[in-house]
Design goal:
Elements: H1 2-24, H2 29-54, H3 63-88, H4 92-103, H5 107-123, H6 125-150, H7 156-168, H8 171-184, H9 191-217, H10 225-250, H11 255-266, H12 272-280, H13 284-309
Helix pairs in contact: 1-5, 1-9, 1-13, 2-8, 2-9, 3-4, 3-6, 3-10, 3-11, 4-6, 4-10, 5-6, 6-7, 6-8, 10-11, 10-13, 11-13, 12-13
Length: about 300
């Protein structure tokens, strides 16, 4: 329970700092804009390259684990997509961002310390597989939908080129893939480079969360609560229920993997969903408000699940 409290307040603490900075107008907008770009386009990608380069993954991919987790996630994405279409008449690109916010969890900043503290360095390895593929899977098809919609009036050839460029320009996805490739082909991580990148990777999360808090200070959070209720309900309640059903009753996985899949699905909406809204300049109010609400609610939902599984 202490690990859960530490993880939640670690996330909220930086958001609150950013919120205070934004509300009190400590810095001019030009400085804030530069800080946002540095946080999202430099620090976060470097941290992802470093983390995925250093992580030790099991040699065998547990396919049932991937099917249960991403199967549930894609179902939640589809539900979020069509709910936003029917209830709010969003455009297709906005629906894709809404769906992503409903299924993409805070697997790194929140999930890794929580799962390590509960499972230990050996049993946590299946979870680290999910962390690796989490962004690659969800970011890829979300980008495909958005880029295809925004370039729908162009020829198919131009659509394909735009989509590939859109994926290539996603610096977060690029950072994860690059780190995985370096890890997979066993390129040693030079010690001098570690001395530089490890401190940078530790700065990335606080910087991104502070940036999120600054953005929240300028948003009408309560105006967007109706959206957040739906997103949080999908992410914090329906997602883990679906994942649990798939893992336990359909795929009949081991108790450890059922636990990992369920907790991974129950993680709150990740701050990287705000990166997507920042990059595509869409639904920033809604998604940032949802990150805060989902993280707050996860204190209760994950506490219940830990009690349910006997941890």
């Amino acid at each position: 329970m202490n690990s859960l409290i530490t993880a939640i307040f670690g996330v909220f603490g930086y958001i609150i700092i950013g919120y205070i900075i934004g509300k009190l107008n400590f810095f001019p907008k030009r400085v804030i804009k530069i800080f946002d770009k540095i946080s999202f386009n430099i620090l976060l990608p470097l941290a992802l390259v470093t983390n995925f380069w250093l992580i030790k993954f099991p040699e065998i991919i547990i396919y049932k684990l991937l099917i249960a987790f991403f199967g549930a996630g894609i179902i939640i994405f589809i539900i979020g997509f069509f709910l936003s279409r029917k209830l709010y008449q969003f455009n297709t690109d906005d629906c894709a961002l809404f769906g992503l916010s409903a299924c993409f969890g805070n697997s790194v900043a929140f999930g890794i310390p929580l799962m390590y503290s509960i499972l230990g360095p050996i049993n946590v390895m299946p979870y680290m597989i999910l962390v690796l593929f989490h962004g690659i899977v969800h970011f890829t098809y979300t980008t495909l939908i958005i880029e295809n919609y925004r370039n729908r009036k162009q020829t198919n050839t131009k659509k394909i080129i735009k989509t590939i460029l859109g994926l290539a320009q996603n610096i977060v996805l690029f950072g994860m893939v690059l780190g995985f490739i370096l890890n997979y082909i066993n390129i040693p991580f030079p010690e001098p480079l570690q001395y530089i990148l490890k401190p940078i990777s530790k700065l990335a999360l606080p910087a991104v969360l502070i940036s999120l808090g600054i953005a929240l200070a300028g948003f009408q959070v309560f105006k967007d609560l109706s959206y957040s209720f739906i997103l949080t309900f999908l992410k914090n309640f329906i997602h883990p229920i679906l994942a649990f059903i798939l893992a336990k009753y359909i795929l009949m996985m081991s108790p450890l993997l059922i636990f990992i899949v369920t907790i991974a699905a129950a993680l709150p909406s990740g701050s990287q969903t705000y990166y997507f809204s920042f990059r595509y300049n869409s639904l920033q109010n809604i998604i940032s408000a949802n990150v805060v609400m989902s993280t707050f609610i996860s204190f209760f939902t994950i506490s219940f699940l830990l009690f349910f599984f006997g941890y």
